Amino acid sequence: MDKLGKLLFGAGAALVLSACGQAQNTASNAPPPPPVDQAAQAAKAQLAQEDANKKVVEAWYQPGITTDERMQLMTPDYTQHNPQYTLFAQVNHVQGRDGFKLYLDTLSKLRGGGNPFGPASGAKHGPQPPPGNTLYKVIADGDLVTVIHQRYALQPGTRDKFYPVYAYVTYRVDNGKLAEDWDDGTLPSVLPIYLREPIGKLKFPKQAHAGD
Question: Which is more confident, 185 or 123?
Fold first, then answer.
């Protein structure tokens, strides 16, 4: 390499080293990344979990869901605080998810089959209330999900006027399953026979068939 070539090579190397130095200085002078907002991340994660908990409860109320499908959404040691179920459990010596399944099956049979929470099967006569909304409001707070139900009751002194009334149920969701339940249920002044006698002594009406 001649003298001129050596000079050019040296100048090029110097420029490369200078550029590397500037890049290092620029990198060292760059502002640090913003700190992770752990509180915001935790809040976001909680909202996501609450949304997932709401979906579990909403699935429990989906039209057409069977009792067996409901059981898949509940923990084996499911705890129901409704006093009617509590009394039913005492009379029949049952508890947990299996006890609640027996309760639902019994209500369904007593109503002629179908929805265990609905009226007895049969023709409807006279003015009917507007359709209610089982999932009128669904509110989540941590592992608790509260559902406000809306239905309509007959206005006293009338035959065809109805007004909205509301009831609530609060569930505790554990790992994607319903684990506990509170509601505003009370015991009737006259206990129905299924709260006084074990199911072995009950007489059930003829079960309705689809399309009846």
Answer: 185
